[in-house]
Amino acid sequence: MTRKLVTLAAFFGFVAIILGAFGAHALKEVLTAEQLVSFETGVRYQMYHALFLLLVSQLNVLTEKNKRTIGILTTIGVFLFSGSIFLLATQGLSGINFKFLGPVTPVGGLFLILSWFLTAFYSMKQKNNY
């Protein structure tokens, strides 16, 4: 599970850097200031959770099953939270109305919150003191 989480974390980080650079350079001229701030929020949270997954992968206090659960919740959360923000912020460029994704963003946020909560819960539940 450690290798999978590190790979996933690296992928999320890789994509966040590309999207961040794309937003700072290519999108700067075509998005409103508000849309750009939203896009940057999606990038920032994606990077936060890339780093979070790296941390989770290295925590000896978590079981492999715990890590898998946290990894799945974080992945769903990143796709729903950051993904919906990216689509909503750039919908004017694509010509596709993604407003129906508005309620998806907080659901993604709930998945991210749950992944952090479970990390704390699982670590407190362990009897071994590492």
From TrEMBL:
It is a multi-pass membrane protein. GO terms for cellular component: plasma membrane. The chain crosses the membrane at residues 47-63, 70-88, 100-122. Keywords: Membrane, Transmembrane, Transmembrane helix. Its main location: membrane. It is found in: Membrane. InterPro entries: DUF423 (IPR006696). Belongs to the UPF0382 family. This is DUF423 domain-containing protein.
